[in-house]
Structures are given as structure tokens and as C-alpha cells.
């Protein structure tokens, strides 16, 4: 990976002529996003993110922290937060912003010696699994990092609305995809093209079924304004 999103984040933090990030998926045409959006404060965050931050407690792990806005808010509140991201540039920007406990780390290789009371996966946290057939391993890893009374706060969207309807009112989904929420993402920044990567949006019912299959209780906390939602996963009580 060329870490183009991380480069954009670091450019913005260091005033190095940041430009918009251009994203395109296997389902959508090219769209631009101002990198400033990743630096928003609490008042500018969607209600789903605000709700997750309100519920965060204990020892907190922020997975895929990006520019660090969520972790910085929690740190400023005096909470014990550890932030990780696979992007070296993003982590460098987080440190420059004053985030104290942040490192370059893939959650799938994170040591299970330390467990957390709250694990945050925001801005479509299910996307980090990449594909639906990887969600079981993903949830098992998160479960192993969770204290017995801990919680996983994760958001996603049901993107079925993006597909055309047929005459019977059903959705027309291409036969060459295993699950309609699976996309291939392409990112461009300052004329460079990122290597394509897998990303998955998971509807709530599918996430709930996957959670139960992997020993986790799943609760719908809040729905957003555009088919998005925040879920809370906890250890399944036997």
C-alpha cells in the first residue's frame, strides 16, 4: 500500500498543500472528500460517532484511528485510550496532534496479552474485515481482545439502497459478488493511485448473525440518517 490516505492526513496536519482525496468503488463513480473532514471535532461528528464516544469507558482501543479525532476527544476527557492504525503517516500526524498512546499496528496481529473494556471501530468499522467471509476471524480477534464485561462499538451501513429495483420490487444484485456489501476501493491523491483494496459494508441482521455465531451478543444502539447504524457487541451470556 502507498498509504495515500495517511499522506493526505499528514499533509493536512503539517500544512503541506493538502488536496482532496478521490475515492472510487466497484459500485460508485469517483468522488472527492476534503481531508479536513477527518480532523473534525466532537460537535461536527455524526450522531453515531458521538453516541459511541459517549459510551466509551474503561481501557479503550481505537482501531483504525486515522487522524485520531475520536481518540483525542477521549484523551481530552481523561480516558485511557490506545489508538492503532496501519498507516505510518496517519500515526505520525496523530502524534503531532498530541495523541499520547498511538502506534502503527494491524489489529489482527495485536497481542492479546492486553485486553480492553471498549473497542472502537468507527467510520464503517466492519470495512476493516475486507470481505464477509473474513468477518468470523475478525470478530474472534476482537473478542479475544475484550475484557469479560467489555464492549465492541462498531458502525456500518446497509448499502442495499444503492442497487436498482426490478419490476417486482426486489433489488438487482450482480451475480458475480458473494455479498452485496462487498466493494473494491480505489483511492487517488495528488496524482498517485493506491493499490485497490477490499472493503465491506455489513447490514445489521448479517452482523447480528455473525456475532452470535462467534459467541457475541449484538445490540442495535442507534440508526443514522443514511442507512447507517451503531452496534454494541458483548460476550454472549450462556
UniProtKB/TrEMBL annotation:
The Methyltransferase domain, residue ranges: 60-150
Superkingdom of the organism of origin: Bacteria
Biological process, per Gene Ontology: methylation
InterPro entries named among the record's database cross-references: Methyltransf_25, SAM-dependent_MTases_sf
Leader sequence residues: none
Pfam families documented for this protein: Methyltransf_25
GO molecular function list: methyltransferase activity
Keywords: Methyltransferase, S-adenosyl-L-methionine, Transferase
The protein's name: Class I SAM-dependent methyltransferase
Organism of this sequence: Flavobacterium cerinum
Organism lineage: Bacteria, Pseudomonadati, Bacteroidota, Flavobacteriia, Flavobacteriales
Amino acid at each position: 500500500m502507498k498509504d495515500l490516505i495517511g499522506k493526505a492526513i499528514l499533509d493536512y496536519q503539517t500544512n503541506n498543500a493538502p488536496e482532496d482525496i478521490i475515492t472510487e468503488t466497484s459500485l460508485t463513480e469517483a468522488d472527492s472528500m476534503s481531508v479536513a473532514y477527518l480532523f473534525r471535532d466532537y460537535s461536527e461528528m455524526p450522531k453515531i460517532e458521538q453516541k459511541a464516544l459517549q459510551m466509551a469507558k474503561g481501557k479503550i482501543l481505537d482501531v483504525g484511528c486515522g487522524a485520531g479525532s475520536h481518540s483525542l476527544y477521549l484523551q481530552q476527557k481523561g480516558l485511557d485510550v490506545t489508538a492503532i492504525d496501519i498507516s505510518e503517516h496517519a500515526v505520525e500526524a496523530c502524534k503531532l496532534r498530541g495523541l499520547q498512546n498511538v502506534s502503527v499496528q494491524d489489529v489482527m496481529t495485536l497481542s492479546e496479552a492486553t485486553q480492553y473494556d471498549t473497542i472502537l471501530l468507527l467510520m464503517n468499522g466492519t470495512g476493516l474485515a475486507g470481505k464477509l467471509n473474513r468477518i468470523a476471524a475478525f470478530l474472534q480477534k476482537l473478542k479475544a481482545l475484550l475484557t469479560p464485561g467489555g464492549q465492541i462499538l462498531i458502525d456500518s451501513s446497509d448499502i442495499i439502497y444503492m442497487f436498482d429495483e426490478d419490476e417486482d420490487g426486489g433489488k438487482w444484485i450482480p451475480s458475480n459478488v458473494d455479498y452485496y456489501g462487498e466493494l473494491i476501493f480505489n483511492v487517488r491523491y495528488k496524482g498517485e493511485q493506491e493499490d485497490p483494496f477490499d472493503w465491506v459494508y455489513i447490514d445489521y441482521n448479517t452482523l447480528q448473525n455473525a456475532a452470535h455465531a462467534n459467541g457475541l451478543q449484538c445490540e442495535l444502539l442507534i440508526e443514522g440518517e443514511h442507512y447507517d447504524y451503531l452496534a454494541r457487541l458483548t460476550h454472549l451470556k450462556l
